[in-house]
Amino acid sequence: MNIQKPDELNLENNRIEIYDKDNNLLKIIEPYAVESCMNPGIFKITPIKIEKTKDSIIFISENIKTEIKKQDIESGDIEVKASDFTPQRRKAKSNCTKCTNCGRCSW
User: Fold this and answer.
1) pLDDT digits 0-9 by tens, 67-87
2) Which segments within 1-107 are labelled E, that is strand?
3) 29: exposed, middle or buried (Cβ count in 10 Å: 0-12, 13-18, 19+)
4) How far apart are CA 104 and CA 51, in angstroms?
5) Any idea what DSSP says for residue 7?
6) Cα(95)–Cα(67) distance, rounded to whole angstroms?
7) Least buried of 22, 48, 55, 78, by fewest C-beta within 10 Å?
8) How many CB atoms within 10 Å of residue 82?
């Protein structure tokens, strides 16, 4: 896992982890991934957006905003890390009743 400044992060397909100064995980921010119902295993990934203001950095994923004060990052109270993001397939429910031919149950 690489430790980088938020300005240097490549957010295209990364997962953002926010830690406090004691290395406790505070929040995970991931890109928004939607699996194709007709092509299981194929995902449309919407990357995390970043907005910078005078006093803070705002991470936006799936319309959820997480604001971090620049002062907290500079003082070392907050640490931002980036790691690879791999979307996960959800298993089909065993009692599917409305078949969309998604292929998950291999029927």
Assistant:
1) 999 999 999 999 988 888 888
2) 2-3, 14-20, 25-29, 32-35, 43-46, 49-52, 56-61, 64-69, 78-84
3) buried
4) 37
5) G
6) 41
7) 22
8) 20
